[in-house]
Amino acid sequence: MGNKFMGKCIAGMASAAGSVKTSMSNTKQDGRIVDLERRIAALTSEIGSLTLLRLDAGDSGSDQTTRPIMERYEAILEAREAITAAEGEKKLKTLVCPHCGQKTSAGFSYCGRCGRAVSEASA
Question: What pLDDT shows up at residue 123?
């Protein structure tokens, strides 16, 4: 009976470790998304400044002044795509409790809010 109990304890610890790993991955994705959103805000500000400088100088759109704006716009598009990918990856690792609606990381057996069982089927 001792070996059976020990086996269940080890299985439980392995499951908990997997859940913690998933939670850490989701937290990492949240941080990445925030960083990308900050980058978009900074690039948007730079585009505005560059456009204003160009217009103040009376430039109607030479390649020399348009190129930096387009480079930043392309960087914004890339950051938006990266956010979409990060959010999609995060969603794959998140479950919603069917009882109370609380989001929780995949791999947890029970909801952290209501304590009821959560299953992979509710993903």
Answer: 44
Task: Provide the terminal-to-terminal Cα distance of the chain, rounded to the nearest Å.
Answer: 35
List pLDDT tens digits, range 88-105.
877 667 788 889 988 887
Cα atoms found within 13 Å of the Cα of residue 55, Cβ hemisphere only: 7
How many structural domains is the chain composed of? Answer: 2
Task: Check whether residue 75 and residue 41 sit in a common domain.
Answer: yes
Residue 115 sits in the same domain as residue 77? no
pLDDT at 81: 93
Residue 4 lies inside a defined structural domain of this protein: no
Question: Residue 16 falls within a domain, yes or no?
Answer: no
Q: Please tell me the predicted confidence (pLDDT) of residue 9.
A: 63
Judgement on whether residues 115 and 55 belong to the same structural domain of the protein: no
Supply 108's token pair.
């947890």
SS3 label, residue 98: coil
Contact between 49 and 72 (Cβ < 8 Å): no
Answer positive or negative: Cα dihedral of 73, 75, 79, 82: positive
